[in-house]
Sequence to fold (480 residues):
Amino acid sequence: MDLRDYVRIFHANWILILVSTLLGIAIAAGYSLLVSPRYQATTQLFVSVRSEGAATGDLVQGTTFARQVVTSYAEIANSALVLQPVVEELGLDITASQLARQVTATSPLNSVLLEITATDEDPETAAALANATAESFTRVVVDDLEAPEGEDAGPSPVRIRQTEPAAVPSSPVSPNVPLNLVLGALIGFAAGVGAAVLRTVLDTRIHSLHDIATVTEAPVLGGIAFDPDAKARPLIVHADPRNPRAESFRSLRTNVQFLNVEGGSSRYVVTSSGPGEGKSTTTANLAISLAETGARVALIDGDLRLPKVADYMGIEGAVGLTDVLIGRVELVDAMQKWGRGNLFVLPAGRIPPNPAELLGSTAMDRVLAALSEHFDYVLIDSPPLLLVTDAAVLTKKATGALLVTASGATKRPELQGAVSSLDRAGADLLGIVVTMLPTKGPDSYGYGTYVYGAAHAEDDLLTAEPAPTGKAARRRSKSP
Fold:
């Protein structure tokens, strides 16, 4: 993953990351409100060595000695020898070992100062603990640990003075609300980013053109944005020519035209890896778009298991390809002219028990050969590749295949399986058509600016014609 991938992850999952960050802040705020505040009080002690009447060298030696021993004194400050008298003096209901968790002693580097800090939920108790510990520590060190031996030994060479008594703290040291909120936000943000990355890694669905590039090197011929009204208006190129989605089909048409630079008739099989990816609507709209240019187009419903072209085109589908293949009807009688252009539709006809055998028969070869003599483009809508072998059989008889994949629905392994199926069949995968692309977000598909002029509007009014249906369509059918 590169930087662009992470940007896409942030863009696609910003709500998840934001919610996770806010949740972290909320947890930190709740913790700060529920936890009991704790106060700290600190007292400072000065450790020195008696040096009355001593020479300068003795003073230096005494200071050096004090610096050496003050580190050891820090370890003694929270020992039971020091803290047990504190427990008895203050009448605490805890043991010396428990009190040791509330008392710490530190000494700055190369210093003869000793700082004793006490922590408690009550500020006055914290100050009392610090001062009592300092007094007990002084007595233990001076009168016991550093006391000279013998009756005439004199006072202890070590002197400890309290230079700064512990004052009652006015504000608690914990919880540190600002710090907790910052940490909560950082932890929540990190959790959100981790969840977003994990979600992206585990999500194998195709979401963008970038995902397709990781599966196949086949070019992307077009991108069709998601339209919630697609079922109500499947033929968007005819129903609403000014719709940006209709323009995307025209862009697909242009790219398909570039596939055949040598001229002559082209036979394209339009298929997908699974059902519900928009292959039938893509085939129908592409056929209408090609016919708009004046090209002669034949649209064949090669899905003999679940035909949809007749319903989308609004024509009678009882007689069609299957009747032609078994010799029951002539090809010229089964084809129906659609619209004012040179678009002819061959419905699927009756659903046979052996679709794959019919599509792979020599009769199908003769049908395609006859259509190629009269049409510039022959578009065949075929079943999904991963469900049945019909599409693979048809691709052997065609110029190449156009593979339709749905953004947010098709998974990368499914797309890879469809590509592999075409490769095993020896078919030429001419390109990918992505449908249902999101119109917002990091994977959105931009149409750009599409402006209509007055002349174009007049052309639309002149050429607009409702799709033929029922008997009217059959009366208008004629030979290619």
About this structure: The longest strand covers residues 39-49. Residues 177-202 form the longest helix (26 residues).
